[in-house]
Give the backbone structure.
Amino acid sequence: MLWKRIIKWGAPLLPFLGMLLLCLMVVAVFAGTGDDREQESTMLESTTSSYGSTGLAPEIERFRPIFEKYAQKYGMTAQLNVIMALSMQESGGRVLDVMQSSESIGLPPNSILDPEKSIDVGIQHFKNVFQKAHGDIKLTLQSYNYGGGFIDYVQARGGAYTKELALSFSSYQASKLGWVSYGDPSYVDHVMRYLQVTPSAGGTTVASGNFKKVMDEALKYQGNPYVWGGASPASGFDCSGLTSWCYRMAGVRLPRTAQEQFNTAKRVSETEARAGDLVFFSGTYAGKLITHVGIYLGGGKMYNSNDSGIEYSSVTTGYWKAHFYSYGRVLN
C-alpha cells in the first residue's frame, strides 16, 4: 500500500527531520523573545509624556544632562520631565542622593554619595515600577514613594490609581507595621506641582504651521530696545517676552520665561532644527540653567531680543555660539 511505501522510504530521513524540527522550534523561541523585548522597548519609548516640567530648582536643572543620559540608556526619555519632577520632590537637588534611590537597592537613606549614581539607580528603579504599573504615571509615582507593594494593592482593587487607594494603603501599612504613618499619601499631588500638561508629540509643530504668523508679529518690533521683564508691545520685550507674545499671536501659548519654555519644548538636534523652532542659551547671566531664547530661522540664524535690541543674530558664531545650549520644538 502507498502509506507503507511512504513509511519505508521516509524512515531513513526521520532522524534528520526530527533535528530540523527541533532547530526550527529553537529559532522560533528566540525570535519570539527578541520580538517581546523589541515590543517592550517600543512601548516604553512610545509612551509619550503629556507633561512638561515647571518650577524646577536650579539645583535639579544642573543635573539635566545626567538625567537625559540615563533616561536614554534605560528607554525612559519620554518620561524625563516626570523623573525630574519626582527628583524635585525627593531632594530638590540639595543632597547627593538626588533621587533618594539608596533604599531601592537595600541601603539606608542617603547612602549614595554620588549624584550620577543616584540618578542611574533611581531611573532604573523608576523604570521597574513604571513597567509593573503598565505605564500609569500616577500609580508609578505613588509606588516610587510607597514601594511596589502598592501596585499589587491597587491591581487587586480595580487596577487604577486613586487618591483614596493611596490613603487607604498608607493606613493599612501603618497599622500593619505599628507606625504612626506610612509614606506620603499626597506624593502624586506634590510631584504634580512641578509638571504641566503639554500637547502630544504627535501634534502639529509651529515650524510646520505657524512660522509665518510668528514672524509677521515679531518683525513689527525689529529695532526696538531690550526691556528686562517686558512681555507686550506696551512694555517692550525681553527675550522670552518676545517669544511668548509672538507665538501667542500665532495661536500657540508658551510659558513666560526662557527656562519654562525650554522645559516644555521637545528637544531637537541641530540637523533636525527648522524655522519656527526655539533656540536656547545658557550662562548669559547668573541664574537658571536656560537664560536666553530666540526664534530659530534656519541656516544658523535667529531672531531675538537681546541687549542690542530686537534683531537678527547668528547662532553659530561669536557670543551666541559660546553660550548655545540646544534647540527646542514647540507643539500646537
